[in-house]
Amino acid sequence: MRAASSLAVLTALLAGSTVAQAADPLFAPEPIQDSSGWIVTVKGNLRVGPSYPGSDEFSFIGYPSLSFRRAGTVERFSAPDDGLSFSFLEDSAVRFGVVGRFVGGRYLQDNRELFGLEKIDWAVEPGVFVEYWPLEFLRARAEIRRGFNGHEGFVADFGLDAVQRFGAFTVSIGPRLALGDNEFTRTYFGVTPAEAALNGQVTPYRPSGGITSVGATGAISYDWSQQWSTTAFVTYKHLVGDAADSPIVERFGSEHQVGVGLTVSYSFGYTP
């Protein structure tokens, strides 16, 4: 395992609204009591995952994040692999809005066997999301995003989470499905004839878009108090289709993409 540390400041502004009583089991048991203003939540996030899509080696990333909600409202459930999002609609069953993700780059120092393959810079992926709670304990979420800088393709992520509270604990688990278009798959999994000639260990490969991975995410959170909480999680993606058949994955990487992480949250009231 190779570890590379990086630091990014990611902020998300989340608007709060009154949550229907029937959906209360999905969220924190009690909001921080404050008659006016905002509740600010500061998070410290630590994650370990593949160095780049398809890699069998790992990188470490630590970053802070920040969110806001109206005072007197409870914090809505979010899965640890959700993109950072801002909702235009807060409802007990439906939410939608804008979302963004950060994707790390692929560099020669990640794996010396990548010699001859073009480096891929980091990318940002802004887009839109929608989520729906068909049952009190079940959430469906979809994100569609477009890459900039490292890749210029379109990607989509779909997930389903079963969520249940047990006292101070909240447990969630559910399947995941990821798609990418031709531009995305050719950026991360394709090999040009020139790259193949320089590298000498892989053959030219031109993948097509489609389903890139299937998997699951599980998490467990513990509320130490109204202010403090901790979340531990694990994610698993199994590359499929043209992504899995890439000579980069077969020769230098793995179809099995595993990630783990820990988040510590602190919430406090703020009145401007």
Q: Can you describe this structure?
A:
The protein has 272 residues and is mostly beta strands. It has one domain: Outer membrane phospholipase (ompla), Chain C, CATH 2.40.230. It is built from four helices and 13 strands. A hairpin with a 2-residue loop joins strand 9 and strand 10. The N terminus is likely disordered.
Which secondary structure elements does this structure contain, and how are they paired or packed?
Blueprint: E1 10-11, E2 38-50, E3 58-70, E4 84-90, E5 94-103, E6 123-135, E7 138-146, E8 148-149, E9 154-166, E10 169-180, H1 182-189, H2 193-199, E11 210-223, E12 228-239, H3 241-244, H4 247-252, E13 256-270
Parallel strand pairs: 1-3
Antiparallel strand pairs: 2-3, 2-13, 4-5, 5-6, 6-7, 6-8, 7-9, 9-10, 10-11, 11-12, 12-13
Task: From the structure above, extract its key features.
9% helix, disordered N terminus, 13-stranded mixed β-sheet, mainly beta, 13 strands, Outer membrane phospholipase (ompla), Chain C, 272 residues
Second-tier CATH architecture: Beta Barrel
Q: What class, by secondary structure content?
A: mainly beta
* Helix amount: under 10%
Tally of DSSP β-strands: 13
Helix count, DSSP H or I runs of 4 or more residues = 4
Note the overall shape: elongated
| Radius of gyration of CA atoms, rounded to a whole number | 20 Å
Average pLDDT = 86
The third-level CATH topology is Outer membrane phospholipase (ompla), Chain C
Number of domains: 1
Distance between the termini: 46 Å
Oligomer classification: single chain
Q: List the helices and strands in order.
A: EEEEEEEEEEHHEEHHE
**Largest sheet, described in full?**
13 strands, mixed
